[in-house]
Amino acid sequence: MHNKLCVITGANSGIGFETAKELAKQGAFIVMVCRNEDKAEAARDEIIAEIPGSGLDIVLCDFSSQDDIRKAAKTIGDRYEKIDILINNHGFVAKTYNETVEGLEETFGVNHIGYFLFTNLLLLKVKAAGNARIINVASEAHRNGEFDPDNLQLKRGYSTWKAYANSKLFNILFTNELAIRLEGSGVTANSLHPGVINSNFGSNSTIWVRIFWKIAGPFMKSNRDGAETTIYLATSDKVEGVNGAYFKNSKVATPTKTARDEAAASRLWAISEELCGLT
Q: Which residues are marked as active site?
């Protein structure tokens, strides 16, 4: 990983922070893409204190805003010639139905469109590395998701966990379609389940989710353990050339039939392009 450029979203806390710290320890230069500047700077200072001489940059981005995503991608594109590893790690669970400034359901906008638009805007820089990897953090929660192209944003029948499960299903479908489009480029795209993590992830959600997180916390993985599969996909020679796979506990796993539906993946891509104004 020496001198490889790694872009990691949501890098100031949870498994994103642990991933950034470990890759920095292995000699990578890390671009931490974070929403909150104070938290990002505190995380960077903590990594530097533990690993003196680490190369760390901060780029601010609120993934609920497509304008912010475009600005962050442009900043990274202007600063760096290539990206060796792109890790889409940020995640969100809404308390109630809410819409982004673009009028998208918020969980869909942050978790899916955030991955989709950010990746597409940086794709030329990733391809410039020649032999690069795109890693998308999904979840086993996708097993409770469904693909309904007429109700992707749950304007009918919304619930907090349905929105989250759908977004994780869309992460896998996006990864699979991206992998097909990347064939022959030298770039690979894979998704993963990090495990159920004892973090502050559920702190923004409903009271029942927060209560569950508090009770179940002692039985969940630590952030460091949860980062293992992401780190494995970023660093291991064993996954060289592996493209379009879904990983769990650093091994290839089989997602749901819907998550493996090529027609659904292609349809989701086309809808997402339209929502982002990409051609």
A: 164
